[in-house]
Amino acid sequence: MRKLIGKLLLKLMGWKVVLQGDENVLNRCILVVAPHTHNMEYILGNLSYWSLKKPLKIIIKDAHTKAWYGSVVKGLGGIGIDRSQKNDLVNFVAKQFEKDDFSLVITPEGTRSWVPKWRKGFYHMALAAKVPIVLAAGDFKRKIIYLGYTIPYERIASAPFTEIMQEIQDYYIKNDIVPKIPENWNPNIMGNDTEAKV
Fold first, then answer.
1. Where is the Phospholipid/glycerol acyltransferase domain (predicted)?
2. How many whole angstroms separate alpha carbon 30 and alpha carbon 140?
3. What is the pLDDT of residues 129-172, one digit of tens each?
4. CA 113-105-115 angle, 5° bins
5. Phi, psi of 18 (to 5 degrees)
6. Whole-prediction pTM value?
7. pLDDT higher than 60, residue 194
8. 151 with 8: CB under 8 angstroms?
9. What DSSP string runs through 88-123?
10. Would you say 178 and 41 are in contact if contact means Cβ atoms under 8 Å apart?
């Protein structure tokens, strides 16, 4: 049912999904979503995964999973975490992957506003969970959702961190992704720190 709903709603809104790799990689990965400038990206991403019948999860405050509507939140892929405590989020994510297969949505900008550079947590999560990093983007000019460009775990584990980050930065620049709110997007994800430490 979700597959049909996802395909139908995307079609009605004039959007299409373009796969840039093997769709099976979407079964188990850290899904890096950028640019992140508007909540609409989350809706489009969910519909895309529904249309492909793939498992998608997102980390949210556990207050949402414990509330009266918690079962709905969990049904939509919400994984609750108590952010008031000093949680080891990287190991928490690794343990989730030990239990199940899914794509975990991460928005490294951490906000819908302009940021000087990305947070690095997604990289450490992929290393700890031993899963690939898959890139996703919503191009609001062309109404295309790109999914599937993959950086395999083996490369993440062996290549320098800056090399991985440069590859990701090049991907978003070369694809000329146009976000919902362009002025909130900084494609220079490493900022001025070209020698960024992990």
1. 30-141
2. 23
3. 999 999 999 999 999 999 999 999 999 999 999 999 999 999 99
4. 20
5. -115, 115
6. 0.89
7. no
8. no
9. -HHHHHHHHHHH---EEEE-TT-SSS--SS--SHHH
10. no
Q: d(Cα 87, Cα 63) in Å, to the nearest integer?
A: 15
* Residue with tokens 């919902």, as numbered in its chain: 180
Identity at 81, one-letter amino acid code: I
Q: Which residues pair with 57 in a beta bridge?
A: 104
SS3 category, 56: strand
Give the span between the Cα atoms of 131 and 80, in whole angstroms: 21
End-to-end CA, the chain: 42
Q: Which two tokens stand for residue 113?
A: 């506003």
Amino acid identity, residue 36?
H
In the beta sheet, which residues pair with residue 58? 78, 105
| Structure token pair of residue 51 | 């249309």
Residue 19: strand pairing partners: 147
pLDDT digits (tens, 9 = 90+) for 88-144: 889 889 999 999 999 999 999 988 999 999 999 999 999 999 999 999 999 999 999
Q: Tell me the C-alpha distance between 174 and 168, whole Å.
A: 10
